[in-house]
Design brief:
Blueprint lengths: L4 H24 L3 H21 L3 H25 L15 H23 L6 H9 L5 H12 L3 H23 L13
Helix pairs in contact: 1-2, 2-3, 3-7
Length: 189
């Protein structure tokens, strides 16, 4: 996209902050249903990030795979859990394990921040080569992926959609909790 730099940075920071806030909501909210929906929001925000960085195919794959399949399965798994909901949205009671986990995650975050900030990204071989070629993924490669999916790999592609449909119907049946009535034929002698 050819956008003014200030506008580009503003939208980019807005998308980044929505990803960070959504991820914090996934981790910090006590209600598992809200966490599942916020995870879907994070997946959509990541696809907007890919779209904003001119990776149209990756953005579409992100929406189809993560939002369309994985998050739906997570929501159905949440529906199967009959957990008692508490009135408290944020649970501020920490255990020893929570403190240890927080310390480990904070140290990993600080280590990754230091490594990322000290890395000279302009000298990495793949970045230099991609700048020479300008476009690694062209329209032709995306068309090739689409044509391969709909010609050579059409049977596995359709079988996967049928398997996902069967899983969806099974999850709905389990979530509704209907009892199956089994009629037994009694053989009279």
């Amino acid at each position: 996209m050819k956008l003014p730099e200030l506008f580009f940075e503003t939208i980019f920071h807005l998308i980044e902050s929505s990803i960070i806030l959504g991820s914090l909501g996934v981790v910090l909210l006590n209600d598992i249903v809200y966490s599942a929906f916020l995870l879907g929001f994070v997946f959509v925000s990541v696809s907007f990030l890919y779209l904003f960085l001119d990776s149209d195919f990756v953005a579409a794959a992100q929406l189809l795979i993560y939002v369309g399949a994985i998050n739906v399965l997570i929501v159905f798994a949440v529906m199967l859990i009959n957990k008692q909901q508490s009135n408290n949205t944020f649970l501020l009671l920490w255990t020893i394990g929570d403190g240890i986990t927080f310390a480990i995650c904070t140290s990993i975050f600080l280590l990754l921040t230091r490594v990322i900030s000290n890395t000279s990204w302009s000298e990495i071989y793949l970045v230099v080569e991609s700048n020479k070629n300008e476009k690694l993924i062209s329209i032709d490669s995306i068309r090739r992926i689409g044509s391969e999916l709909l010609t050579e790999f059409v049977v596995p592609f359709e079988l996967m959609s049928i398997i996902l449909l069967i899983a969806l119907i099974g999850a709905i049946t389990l979530a509704r909790g209907e009892q199956m009535i089994v009629v037994e034929d009694k053989i009279q002698n």
